[in-house]
Amino acid sequence: MHYELRIHTHIHSRYQVFDASGQLPFSIVFDLCRRSPADTDPRSLLLEIAGSILDVPYALGHGLLTLYEQDPEDAKQWVEVDLRRLKEVAAKEAECLSLAFPVYQCYVNINGELASILEPRKKYMIRLASEDFSVTQWAYSDRKRLVDNDGKPNHDSEAVKLVNSKLTAGNATFKVVKNLSWLPRIETRMRLCASSPSSDSALANAKLSSSTALEVSVINTGSDSVTVQTRGHQRILIPWGPFQPEPDVDDDRMRIIDAMPINRRRPVWRLSILRHWKWSGGMNGAALPGAPVIRKIDMGALVGGLLDGQYTIRMQSRGCRWWLGEVGNGEIGKEEGEEGRVPAQLCGTIGSPLMLESQDEVELRIRDGKVD
Predict the structure, then answer these.
(1) Cross-strand pairs, 295
(2) Residues of the chain where predicted confidence (pLDDT) is lower than 70
(3) In a designed cystine with 337, which of 122, 156, 242, 343 is the match (CB 3.0 to 4.6 A)?
(4) Cα-flanking dihedrals φ and ψ of residue 158, to 5°?
(5) Which of 160, 136, 110, 133 is nearest to 30 (CA)?
(6) In 10 A of CB 88, how many CB atoms?
(7) Are 203 and 196 in contact (CB under 8 A)?
């Protein structure tokens, strides 16, 4: 029997920001892959998390992981943080992970010992410290637990030691903020209505091909005006998977409330998804409290080529960058950017997104290639 079984371990943070207020849940994410040539058992590998590198506060306090702080005077330099305060941190309660689902998230408690070490406005990095995986018990199994309901072991633990195959596989890098700004609730509704070029700038210069339009209205339910970026790269917090952002969250296409005419469609699963067309970075007019922003989309330009039948329109959730106040009146900038672009002084920060999303579903029928 081989002495070691190698596991490829890739580590990163779910978000690039740790919100010390706890409004944004924060976790360290591990992507695990069985890499040893001798590992030929087709069953899943079941391992105990407590006391291992996956138990992040314990692992930092016991030398399995290392925490670094970025040098404020030289961004390329990282200084190891003294973690003697974490040596007394106990392992978490028993918990098993099956490598049939090889992504594990260790959530960081904002009231825990690790969070007490992290200081606002500083940037940190967590890396693997050694090959030691520090798994106390593991087994090949199709079950979900290493013990039965009475707490008795239901597997014989393997004698082979689990080790990390590569120490430099990723790192969890994040900046600590005291608290993130969160937008008041935005209400987004959809309905079918009659097309009217005079009622919306997005239709004003468009050649209407249908008497039916999809009306999208967004209402700011808060007490402050909000300015929204509707085009271009959205510098917002997005969740990351093992190696890249989660699918569809890092999307720079035009948002549905942009004032430019929409003249293309994107069908997905027999759904007409009406949004996100490429354009240079731009800003939409401010959404005043209680006053809806209304956009109407000509349905005739979107249903061309669809077979006759019944269809449902749903809105895919997408995030937008936002600022409290209005551009040009001294609230969030001295003046509006050229041709409605985002002013340069507003481009440096990353914040929580304003989510354009709606639970409304709009039914329509296509007959002879037209909206019935």
Answers:
(1) 216
(2) 1-3, 143-157, 159, 184, 196-210, 241-249, 259-290, 301, 327-349
(3) 343
(4) -70, 145
(5) 133
(6) 8
(7) yes
